[in-house]
Amino acid sequence: MGTALIYDEEMTSYKLLWDDPECEVEVPERLTVSYEALVRSGLADHCVSIPVREATEEEILLIHSEEYLEKVKKTPHMSVQELKDFALQFNAVYFHPNSYHCAKLAVGAALQLVDHVLMGKVRNGMALVRPPGHHSMRDAACGFCTFNNVAIAAQYAKQKYGLKRVLIVDWDIHHGQGVQYCFEDDPSVLYFSWHRYEHSIFWPHLPESDYDAVGKDKGVGFNINVPWNKVGMTNSDFLSVFCHVLLPVAYEFCPELVLVSAGYDSGIGDPEGEMCATPDIFAHLTHLLMNLAGGKVCAVLEGGYNLTSLSQSVCQTVQTLLGDPNPRPENLRSPCQSALESIHCVRWAHRRYWSCLGHAADLSSFQISTKPSGSPKEAGESTWKDKVAVVWPEPVKRVAPPVRTAALLSDEAVCPEGCKRLATSDKLDPRVAGKLRENFLEGEGDSEALSALSGLITLTEKMEKDEILNGLAVVRDITMATACVVQHVTMAPNNRVLVVCVGDGEAPSNITEDRKALVVRIGSRETKQSKCKNDIPVCLKKGCADVSGVIQAVFGLLLPLGYEFDPSLVLLVRMPGSEVSDGVWQQLTGLLQCLAQGHVLVLIQECEKSCVSPTACSLLGEPAPPLGQLQAPLPQDVEDMERLRRKLLADWTLLQTTAADTGKRQEL
Ligand SMILES: [Zn+2]
């Protein structure tokens, strides 16, 4: 199952024909540079190329009115003056004699992508299109958009394939008000948008772009707006919104298809967005969506006006869709006050609609700002040229190791298809062997145990050298194996290990003392938090069999902790008798690959061999199966997790969900 790439040079065949400072950033080169970057990097070669087609009138009418379509149909025959006059009816739009043709291709490209993904011909994909779509409304063009490509795609997927739940993630820096208007009363489409807002100072200046526009009638709760009230938002701000707003809600919703309104004006250097998120963040945003809907993710280009930032970000997205390992997240620090305020407001506004947000903090005791802070900008103070003159390092080339998944198994076990079997090692450096004996085998000469541990060490070393991306090992003594890996890996000065223990059982003690390991234990056993701050027990009343509880812990605690800790290796440890379902286990295995450049090592005890095959699938990059619409987590668990989160705030800034949390951090 591959990744589709849809592009046609034909969509560069229209441009602005008169002077209009508002529209001059929307140029044909946006498409050509993006596509050329994909070709140059070799990514285009790895994609399945799918031809575009023109959308039919019937398809356009899924969202737009006949009257509007008839008007646009006349544009190919208009003079420049007539086009100019026609465009003036709308907000921030221009037309060209080829606009109509290209707009039909843009819709058709989105529909081709949806068809190929939903028919199972490809797993996921991206459509590079012009004109963009998310501002366009039933009766009107708006903001460079003619037809609403993604809204039509959502409606088409519902109608043609009978889908009941579609998620639209709009990470463009403008509010896709057109999409919101289409689906605000429709509970089958969950629309999420973050956008530069600055308390409505920023275009399109709509009150309904604010956090309290949550949808209407039956669709109440299915429209999520995260307004950015300041410019300069960073990777941390974006990730925090994903972990604390979008992902828990998306998992509760359980979409059958994810459409991304993939605008890159939210990236650094963009003259429209003026944000500071670097191109690599789009690898993470993409990855975090790829275990939803069985991996059916369709990204459709919207905005993006800094050609360098745009093309780099498009490459990051496509490379992640292809399944290549993510870069280590860069520059993560505390989300800013303004972002936290927005997160707080959105969580509060939606807490009555989504059980995962049911515990969100009150707004009443909190003074929210209603005006942009800082002095208002003088008009013309910073020019378009200043805004795009920002520089940032080129993203590091992401190279996939030659072997994706290695397996360390007993001789009689069958190696899962696609994995490379590693032999347990007999030829061991005598010094390492001596150390292993001394530390773990109490001097006894059990050669079988010794060669199993040395096999593990060989595996971690190959991962460190990027010869192998990830791996799984079936071990006899999981506590000893965990301790052995952590001890060996953390000997190197810059290494850090995130240990995720699933289920109760004897987790190794004393491995976190030098803080180069962070242990998060998810289980049912009430354990006192050890004195070491890096040993974090998350207790769920029903243990890991409780799907909603585990998912709540993953987004509220585990992923933010993981991102902030930024490990070089993730060790996922399945304790015997954990009762975790295959589905949840695969979600965990899939999601954790966003960390440590995808270096995830899974340890499984011999008695749990049945999970080897689903584990291997996830490590090989197969999306996890959907978990179904989630029930509310147990109130007691939520309360306990919230207490734990507050306790951890002093050390972990990405756990913040309100601006008030920063105050708490300072008090501590
Ligand atoms: Zn935009």
TrEMBL record:
<comment type="similarity">
    <text>Belongs to the histone deacetylase family. HD type 2 subfamily.</text>
</comment>
<feature type="domain" description="Histone deacetylase">
    <location>
        <begin position="25"/>
        <end position="320"/>
    </location>
</feature>
<keyword id="KW-0378">Hydrolase</keyword>
<dbReference type="InterPro" id="IPR023801">
    <property type="entry name" value="His_deacetylse_dom"/>
</dbReference>
<dbReference type="GO" id="GO:0040029">
    <property type="term" value="P:epigenetic regulation of gene expression"/>
</dbReference>
<dbReference type="GO" id="GO:0019213">
    <property type="term" value="F:deacetylase activity"/>
</dbReference>
<dbReference type="GO" id="GO:0005634">
    <property type="term" value="C:nucleus"/>
</dbReference>
<dbReference type="InterPro" id="IPR000286">
    <property type="entry name" value="HDACs"/>
</dbReference>
<protein>
    <recommendedName>
        <fullName>Histone deacetylase domain-containing protein</fullName>
    </recommendedName>
</protein>
<dbReference type="Pfam" id="PF00850">
    <property type="entry name" value="Hist_deacetyl"/>
</dbReference>
<keyword id="KW-0539">Nucleus</keyword>
<dbReference type="InterPro" id="IPR023696">
    <property type="entry name" value="Ureohydrolase_dom_sf"/>
</dbReference>
<dbReference type="InterPro" id="IPR037138">
    <property type="entry name" value="His_deacetylse_dom_sf"/>
</dbReference>
<dbReference type="GO" id="GO:0016787">
    <property type="term" value="F:hydrolase activity"/>
</dbReference>
